[in-house]
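Forum: Protein Structure Q&A
Topic: Joint prediction for protein chains with partners

I've read a bunch of threads here and the consensus seems to be that you should model interacting components together rather than docking separate models afterwards. I'd like to see that in practice. Below is the full input, 226 residues plus whatever partners are listed. Could one of the regulars post the assembled result?
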Amino acid sequence: NAGVTQTPKFRVLKTGQSMTLLCAQDMNHEYMYWYRQDPGMGLRLIHYSVGEGTTAKGEVPDGYNVSRLKKQNFLLGLESAAPSQTSVYFCASFFGGQGASYGYTFGSGTRLTVV
Amino acid sequence: AQSVSQHNHHVILSEAASLELGCNYSYGGTVNLFWYVQYPGQHLQLLLKYFSGDPLVKGIKGFEAEFIKSKFSFNLRKPSVQWSDTADYFCAVNAGNDMRFGAGTRLTVKP
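Posted by a regular:
Agreed with the consensus. Here's the joint model:
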């Protein structure tokens, strides 16, 4: 199993450009999440989804949009990138069942720089 | 909204020293608790988790954590650290549909 795969791994954008980050999981998890990680601030939740066709706002949703058209994919969009969105973005999926598999699986991250 | 506080931003220890990293959360209901480690340039890896049962949880690499409900705490411990434990450590709390992270503690272990 590949687990959680994020693409791209690195990207440089100019202010005002748009882009979409893709998160794909092959574990049939219902829940998926997008976080951003900034120095000294840990991970902050941007948006999440509790199932196909559903999305919800997290702590820092402004400037981002998401879609979950297929269960295995969770897309994060930046419509008009700003330097404040320079960050490392992590996707995660969650298994809420019983046993040792309970918990979150993280992707390897996308490093985004907005100039 | 729930929040997670990690008291130590940077901890510097010598090898073989004991480690305790503090984590407190603010949420009154049932919670699930996690500690993650992030080595330089890598993504988060699960160290241990608590969701029910024995409040003393043992994880990988000799780490353990104790859930004290009355103190809303979930402190991470290791009796003897190694140079390879140098990393960032994140406490996380899951309640409901989302999970919130603390700001993290950077651990530096001197050889």
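Chain A touches chain B through 24 residues (CB under 8 Å).
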